[in-house]
Batch of 2 targets.
Target 1
Amino acid sequence: MMKAFLDKNEITYSLGTGKEKFLVNYYINHDLVESTIATVTFYMNNPEYVDTITISDLDSHKYHTGFSQHYQDYQFDETQNTFTIHGAISQKHNNMPFSVVLRPIV
C-alpha cells in the first residue's frame, strides 16, 4: 500500500529513507485543525514493507508527528492520490481519534 503511494508519486528513497514535501491535513475527531505543507519522511527496511512515517514540520507538542503501522492504520486512495493515517483515541487530543491526510503538492 505505501509502496504504491511512493511509486505513484515518484518519491525516490535512498538507504531506506524517502523524503518529500506534501500538503498535510490533520484532523481531530473529524475536524480539520491543521493544514500545511510539510516535509514527510518515510523510513523503510524494505520498500515493500514501509513502516514508519514522520512529519517534521508539525508541532509535536500538539500533534502526533511519528506514525507506525503497528499503532495506526494506513490507507492509500489511488483515485484521489491521498495517503491517510488513522489513529484511535489519543491522549494528545483528549482521547479523540485523529487522521492525517497526505496529498502531493501540484
Target 2
Amino acid sequence: MMFGTGVGLMVALLVVTLLVVPVSLGVAARADAKVRRLAESRASHPNLTGSVAVADVDERCDRWRQLATRAWLICGGASLVAVAVVGVLIRVG
C-alpha cells in the first residue's frame, strides 16, 4: 500500500467536506428562514383570496422545508465524515 497516496486522499476528502459543511449550513439556515417567513405571512394574512393562493403558499413552504431538511442532512453527514477523517489522520500520522 502506498502510504502517501492514502493520506493525500484523506486530506482531499477532508478539504471537500470542510467546504461542503458551511455551504450546506448556509443553505439550510436560509431555507429554514424562508419557511418561517412564508408561515408568518400566511398567518398574518388569513384572508388569502382563493384556494389557489393558499395552495401556492403551501407548496412553496413544502419545497423550502424539503430543501432545508436535505441541506441539514448533508451538513450533518459531511460533519461526521470530517470528524471521522480527522480521527483517521490522527491515528495514522
